[in-house]
Design a protein that fits this description.
This protein is α+β, with helices and mostly antiparallel strands. The protein folds into four domains: 2-209, no CATH class; 234-407; 420-465, SH3 type barrels (Roll), CATH 2.30.30; 475-514 and 531-583, 2-Layer Sandwich (Alpha-Beta Plaits), CATH 3.30.70.100. The chain is 65% helix and 8% strand. Strands 4-3-2-1-5 form a five-stranded antiparallel sheet. β2 and β3 (442-447) form a beta hairpin.
Length: 604
Amino acid sequence: MKKILFILLFLYITILSSNNDFDEFINTQIKMEAQFLDQNISLDEKMDMQEKQDKMYQKFFFKYATEKEMHLQSLDPYYTKIKRLKLRLKNNQYKGYYNAAKRDEVLLKAYTLRQDIRNLLHATLLSTENTKKSTFEDKINTLVLIFYEKFKPLDTHKYISDTNETNTILKDLHEALKTENALESITNIFTSSLILNKLLIYRTSRISDSKFFTILNTINKSPYSEKFNKYLLPLHLDTAKIIAVLLFILFIMIIIKLMYIIINYFLRHYKLKENDIDYIHSHITSVFNIFAVLLILHLIIVAFIGIDISSLYITKMFGILYVVIISLLAYRITHTVAYLKIERMKKSKILKNEVVNLSIKVINGLILLVAIIFILKILGVNLTALLSGLGIAGAAVAFAAKDSIANIFGSISILAGDIFEQGDWIETKDVNGTVVEIGLRASTIRTFDNALISIPNFELANSGVKNWSRRRIGRRIKMNLSVTYESKFSDINQAILEIREMLKEHKGIANQRTEYKNEYRQARLVSAEDFQGVKRTTLVYMDNFSESSIDILVYCFSRTVEWSEWLEVKEDVMYKIAEIFEKNHLEFAYPTLTLHKGIGTSKN
């Protein structure tokens, strides 16, 4: 997508430029090959030259594909030269001018090689017409193979003269051999660059076939445009460029306006609140406006600079800005959707709050990761080599970040095992409180004295956690009632029977008649009541003869699991037990100490 945008930005600039002659490009490459052979150039300088050469090939292929129609219709510049060389070669051979014949043979080989390279490039351009990308790629590989089957390097030893002559013909022969050697080296670079830039050639040539650029070309050749172009040429502009820029700006503005109308229509169609609509426009639609401004600014700058190395750097800079803007847009869309759906998500029985929070964090991380990858790609970083280097350093990084990785897996373990969720009352060895949030690294817990504690997920996942909120029915009420030894056992027995009956009929106490809806279906052989936390046990028994009292055990469960409601039920049960004790003449015992004074006797 980035490359297509790059092509669209430059097509209208280069479509009307003067023809970048193929022969001129080859001559430039021959000079560069001579520089590569210079022994005084350092390795770093050669690396810089190599990078410059790669950019030159990219620029050449781009411009050649942009002017595809003009190049395909142009005459072969080597046809006449090759024809004349063949005639001159025969004449020199006939007259016995052997060195001149050798020179002509080398020159003929050089021009034929230039012609073959040009034909390969034109065959590549022709292959872009009415073909799919995959078909085009296969065809390019086939064309290169055919080219190399025909290509045969020159045997230079055959043309080296044994004489010590220094006449003009021998100098020309020597120069022709140097040129031929450089051409053969260029042939390998040219074909490899052609394969490397084949997608650029395909996209550029397909877009250049558009009638839009043909119309611009016609406009630029009109008499009025030619008059204005004389004044615009020093600014690297022409009439067609200005018209194209204005049309692109108008097109962008129309698209942005249409997007605003469409977004506004859908927002009102789904009956969103006015403040929600304003929120979406301020957080999402505004990003489209920023993107449009950047794109227009990019067009204007490129229109003035034209296509050269500096414009490629500018395009890379804008490409990075586009990635940042698109990433920001994805980030805001994610958060806006979460903001609008948050109330519905809270009521959902499928989506848990902590899963939603964790998902948003993971999505944000992925957005950042993808943005970094695209930025590195734009900067020309070899991602394969980078990933290989990261693989080598991965062990060290993993060891250094083992605690963070353990916490991430701990959070996954907590969510997958459904140990606890937001809002649950949990108790561990060191902490007792309500879960606020389950994060990627740690979970935050609000204690009952209103302190906020952060505990690494790895510790929570590997320690015993009491989850007091996982109770459907039944919060325990346990009491040990003590009565005095002066009480009659018949009264104690009657009181126990009445307490049992009272608990059985009490609306706040769970018993075997208490029903509940079992909406959850567990595909495991476990007790449904134990799994969902249902307790309905009621026990009232004389339990123990203590040192100063007779103990009665009262063990039952309230219907509710809410603390405040549980306290109300427990209080009511205690009042009713007090009434039953009073009715049956029972008194609560308390620790006492009785002293017995003995009377001594004496014998006379």
